[in-house]
Structure formats: structure tokens, C-alpha cells
Specification:
The strands form 7 sheets. A 6-stranded mixed beta sheet has the order 7-4-6-5-9-8, with no helix packed on it. The chain has a 6-stranded mixed beta sheet with strand order 16-13-17-21-20-18, with helices on both faces. The relative contact order is 0.13. Helix 1 crosses helix 6, helix 3 runs parallel beside helix 6 and helix 4 packs across helix 5. Strand 20 and strand 21 form a beta hairpin. The chain starts with 17 loop residues before the first helix and ends with a helix. The protein is built from 8 helices and 26 strands. The longest helix has 20 residues. It has 415 residues and is of the alpha+beta class. The chain folds into 4 domains: 176 residues, MoaB/Mog-like domain (Molybdenum Cofactor Biosythetic Enzyme, Chain A, 3-Layer(aba) Sandwich); 57 residues, Molybdopterin biosynthesis moea protein, domain 2; 83 residues, Molybdopterin biosynthesis moea protein, domain 3 (Molybdopterin biosynthesis moeA protein, domain 3), CATH 2.170.190; 76 residues, Beta-clip.
């Protein structure tokens, strides 16, 4: 239930730690149950809803790992021994049994003929008339890929909750699966609040800014495979905010807003959500992104991101992403934390866990270290373009050059 924190919501000095916020967020997330069957061409990025089993072995027969010559090891006598070539075996053809005392020309992927037990690569072979000799003795099983070496018939090859990557789709194809059962896409409604927001391409009035959050959020959601219901910008009034929130919560799984979740006189999202449903999170000890709202309106979950561009981006990456992954049915929703060496000093420990924009650079000695963007303000969107990820600086932590720190590479975070 949402009541556990309700008495804390308006107390500015009480903040949830990141771990508490993440736990409470994920505790309210329920994975979608509806499924659909899609072709392999449509499966990229979708979440598998049924396990996949192989009805065959891969490889289906012993085959050659090299272009070369297949033989019986016992037939090789010495480096000057010339063995006649009795047949040619391309991939895709069924070979005859290998005649004793002969070799067969064979190509990568071709079936190993009955009686043969080794393949010598062509670089180690020397043609002599209608035969061939080899510079070194063959080894039993050399360059032979055995039946079922990769997959045995009946093996589970893909598990429920796997977000399908190109290699997963290729694996399914390799065992003749042409369709996969996946969870339906999450339907996410979004809108921005703020009378100062202007759409790109329109004239910019005094005191206005262009609405970058809308397009960052749409792109993030699309990259996760969500169906986006874009409701644009909502004016700063309680009536307009409530009307849009009520419409957004109809037939959607999640409603995400940017802006309007602070305590200013023109911030109406908190009041509107409390009037229509329930509000759970309000202050989180992270930076950027302290004003983060979470709740429910009807059957839809609500996530209110801060209005500052970097704050909205970071809070989505470290909290919103995990929420949506769990709702999509993804098995592993954890953040892709990696360890790296700091190439910067951070000498001002804070009371919030900080996510600073960094990128990997190589120093004069060839060692890789994380370098920090010089301007870490919550409105400096250029820092997210320059950066390759987010370094995690825990509460009360001092960082010095050479320290090991955790970071979140965008390559894993935004994939």
C-alpha cells in the first residue's frame, strides 16, 4: 500500500535513500501478463514470455570446423606419406563413407564422413598429384565440431524475462523457431508541465525555454520498446493538470510527467495526483533529482520526474528505467554498475548520493580513468552528450584521483 510514507511527503528534511526509493518503487511494479506472438523480425527488444526449447541438436551432425582434408588418423604414416583424395565434400551435401587409406577434401560446415576422425586444415597440407601429404600428424577429433556440441535436443535456450537481443534472436533461428511469445509492450503516457516551455522550431519568447525533456523522454521510452502516448505540454494550473492526468491514466500502464513536482506555487502535479489517486515518494536523497514523485492513478502507476533536463534524465536512468523493466517482465532489472578508477578529486562530500557525468579517458601512461565534466549543474544538458556514463558518489564520500569508484556506462544503461 502507499500509506507507509504518506506522513513524510510534506516534510522537506526527511529524505529517502536511493536504496529505499528503489525498493519502494519496485515493490509497486507488477509485470504485464498479456502476451502476443511475434516473428523473429519483430522480436528485437521485446521481453520473452515463454521459455524456448530446442527440438534439435546443434550442430545436427559432426562437421568440419575448417577448410581442409578429413581422414582416419591411423592412415597417416609419416610426413612424406601421400594419401589419395577420394571425394570432395562441400557444406550441405551428404558424404559417402570414407574409403580406408584415403582422404576427402572438406569445407567448413560440411558433414564428417563415416569412418573419419580428424580434419587437417588446408594450410598444413601439400598437394602431390592426385593425393595430399601433411606436415604433421593428425590428432583424434582435431577440427571436428561434434553433434550437439552447442545445443542438445530438449535444451532450454532462452528463459522467460529475457529482453531479446540480436544474438538471442539468432539463437532462436538456429533451432528453427520462427516466432516467439513475448509480453505486450508497456503503454506509457507522458506530458510536460510549465508555461515557459516552447516547442522546437517555434519562436522563443522572453523567459521561455525549449522543451527538451519531452524528446529525451520519448526517445528513452522508445528505446525500451514502450508504446508512447505523447500528451505534449500542460499549462500551469491545477484544473489543466488534473484533466490531463485523468485522461493519461485511462488505458495506460504508466503516466510519466516532467516538472511540477517541487513545492513552488506553480507546481500542481503533487496536488493533482493526491486528488486523483495516491502519492508515494516525494524527497529522495539523490543529486540531481531530489523532487521525485511516485504514486498511482486508477490502474496506472505515476512517476513524476523533475523539470531540470539533467535531473529528469538521471532520475529516469537510475530509477524509472528499473521500474519499467520490471513492469515489462524483464528478469534482471538491476543497474549495470561497473568499477573504474577515478581521474578526478571530489572533495565535498554531500548528504545525497550523486550521479556525476563522466567519460573514460586514457592518461599519459596508458591507464584508463574516469574524467568528470567541469559543469555538473542540473540544467547543463551538454554534460550528458559529452559523457559516457554516470559516476556514483555515495553519501559522505570523498573521492581522490586513483580511487576505485562505481559508474554506470550509458552503453549498458541506455541499451
Amino acid at each position: 500500500m502507499f500509506g507507509r510514507l504518506s506522513k513524510q511527503l510534506d516534510v522537506d528534511i526527511i529524505m529517502l535513500t536511493f536504496t529505499q526509493a528503489e525498493h519502494d518503487l519496485l515493490a509497486q511494479a507488477t509485470a504485464v501478463r498479456e502476451t502476443e506472438v511475434v516473428s523473429l523480425q519483430q522480436a528485437l527488444g521485446r521481453v520473452l514470455a515463454e521459455p524456448c526449447f530446442s527440438s534439435l541438436s546443434v550442430p545436427p551432425a559432426d562437421n568440419s570446423a575448417m577448410d581442409g582434408y578429413v581422414l582416419r588418423c591411423q592412415d597417416w604414416q609419416a610426413s612424406d606419406c601421400v594419401l589419395p583424395i577420394s571425394q570432395r565434400i562441400p557444406a550441405g551435401e551428404s558424404p559417402q563413407a570414407l574409403s580406408p587409406g584415403t582422404v576427402a577434401r572438406i569445407f567448413t560446415g560440411a558433414m564428417i564422413p563415416e569412418g573419419a576422425d580428424a580434419v587437417i586444415m588446408q594450410e598444413k597440407a601439400q598437394l602431390e598429384g592426385d593425393g595430399v601429404c601433411f606436415s604433421e600428424a593428425p590428432k583424434m577429433g582435431e577440427n571436428i565440431r561434434r553433434v550437439g556440441e552447442d545445443i542438445s535436443s530438449g535444451d532450454e535456450i532462452l528463459s522467460v524475462g529475457q529482453r531479446l537481443r540480436p544474438q538471442d534472436i539468432g539463437l532462436a533461428a538456429s533451432v528453427s523457431l520462427s516466432e516467439l511469445t513475448v509480453y505486450r509492450p508497456l503503454k506509457v503516457a507522458i506530458f510536460s508541465t510549465g508555461d515557459e516551455l516552447t516547442e522546437p522550431g517555434e519562436p522563443l519568447l522572453t523567459g521561455h525555454i525549449y522543451n527538451s525533456n519531452r524528446y529525451v523522454l520519448i526517445s528513452l521510452l522508445q528505446s525500451m520498446g514502450c508504446t508512447v502516448v505523447d500528451l505534449g505540454r500542460v499549462e500551469d494550473s491545477l484544473e489543466a493538470t488534473m484533466k490531463t492526468l485523468e485522461a493519461a491514466s485511462q488505458d495506460t500502464d504508466v503516466v510519466i510527467t516532467t516538472g511540477g513536482v517541487s513545492v513552488g506555487e506553480e507546481d500542481y502535479v503533487k496536488e493533482a495526483v493526491e486528488s486523483l489517486g495516491q502519492l508515494n515518494l516525494w524527497r529522495v536523497a539523490i543529486k540531481p533529482g531530489k523532487p521525485l514523485a511516485f504514486g498511482r492513478i486508477g490502474d496506472a502507476l505515476f512517476l513524476g520526474l523533475p523539470g531540470n533536463p539533467v535531473s529528469a534524465f538521471v532520475t529516469f536512468c537510475v530509477l524509472g528505467r528499473s521500474l519499467l523493466l520490471k513492469m515489462q517482465g524483464v528478469r534482471d532489472t538491476g543497474l549495470p554498475l561497473m568499477s573504474a578508477v577515478a581521474g578526478f578529486d571530489w572533495l565535498r562530500p554531500g548528504k545525497r548520493q550523486e550521479y556525476v557525468r563522466v567519460r573514460m579517458q586514457t592518461d599519459n601512461q596508458g591507464a584508463q580513468q574516469l574524467q568528470i565534466f567541469p559543469h555538473q549543474g542540473s540544467g547543463v544538458l551538454t554534460s550528458t552528450v559529452w559523457a559516457e556514463g554516470l559516476a556514483v558518489i555515495p553519501i559522505d564520500r570523498v573521492i581522490r584521483v586513483g580511487d576505485n569508484i562505481d559508474w554506470l556506462p550509458f552503453s549498458g544503461l541506455l541499451a
